[in-house]
Amino acid sequence: TEDGQETRARYREVSTGLPMQLAWEYGANAGFGPASPLILQDRVLIGNRKGELHSVELETGRGRGFKQLVDVIEGSPLIHEGLALVPAAWGRDVLVAFDLSQGATRWKKRQIPFSTSLIAHGSEVVAVDVEGTLRAFEVEDGEELWTMSLGRTMAFKASPVRLSEADILLVESSGTAFRVNLDEQTVVWQRDMGAPVYSTPAVDGNQFVVTTTRGDVALVDASTGQDVWRNNIGEHMRVGSPALGPDWIVFGATDGQVRSFSRTHGHENWSIQFDDVVTAPPLLTESAVFVGTL
User: Fold this and answer.
1) Rounded distance, CA 202 to CA 204, Å?
2) What is the average pLDDT value for the chain, to the nearest integer?
């Protein structure tokens, strides 16, 4: 799944030798949405905005084939129980289960599209559609098991994030956050984050970081939905998805700066200026931070 873990923390306990060198490039026939590539054993799986899923050798960058499964891929596919589960932001088929061992589609769903990443829950795959309804499907055959309305039609740009074995975090675009229990299909708490949220939060332990399009960066207690601290880097600043480590929070913004905040106090540790907007999620390691610009 996105970031390789459903908490989307974007932190790895590794040290990386620097400087790095370009190993390979691959042309994937079309542009990309916010969906991240997935690594599966010795392959990289890449979804593009033509709805294609490409398989690329991790070591060499050699293409091993691709398959058009849907019209447009925005959210990251989910690899679960031998299937690549691919959401579609537009078109007739909006969720497709592709059998990786057989190289064939096992099932597909035709209903309201999904523009964000998916969450696995036991034998279920859970997604929030573009109208704000949470839906669960049986992974094996695609049967829709349940739906859950959050009270009104709403849009989501941020993907669902796992808080615990049974609970996920959903933050809709206008800024309302929900902690939802998937076993009981109930809202544990609901909280207004004070500004629009377009970027996926990051979770570590019992805390998560949420960023807004009005310059807010907040560390939040996942049990209560209340702020541990909140900082603002400028009300006209759109902040990208954060990386959350044991001691630091790192994020980019539309002013081209990447900033590091103390996880404990929310104070700025350092910042660095780039020539272009930085809205893609950083990758934080023990020795370096990796970022990309537009």
Assistant:
1) 7
2) 94
